Amino acid sequence: MIFGEYRHQLDEKNRLRLPVKLKQKLGERYVILKGSNRSLFVFSQSELETTMLEKLKSLPLLDAKAQKTVRAMFSSGFEVEEDNQGRFVLPPALKEFAGIKKNVVSIGAGNRVEIWAEEQWNDYNSNEDYDSILEELGDYGI
User: Fold this and answer.
1) Are the C-beta atoms of 42 and 2 separated by less than 8 Å?
2) pTM for the full model?
3) Strand order in the sheet with 78-79
4) Cα(52)–Cα(101) distance, rounded to whole angstroms?
């Protein structure tokens, strides 16, 4: 399970280093994709292949709406290649999508890491009543 919240920054060359505790859970090979709410989803290669891809392969090939979703998700993907210091360049399209300028928040979200622009995360996270969020878990049978 991946959890926690970490605040850090892009360097001057748009390089990012995931926090060690998050990276250990992802393993050596991981992929970044556009996520929801202007966040970026980071999946380990194996999680993406075994969980997401298996479910997405069951979508009807001729269902235009389903295929649009698959295309949107996977065309935004980027297989991370780190330098010898564990940094990688955040692709401009993903940086722009997430609204990231310098300050970044990386969070654990169960089976993935999410990367947020600090301002986006603060806005998203500040207007919620935590007890109400917990109550909503009942809607999902938890």
Assistant:
1) no
2) 0.89
3) 5-9, 103-108, 113-117, 40-44, 30-34, 78-79
4) 29
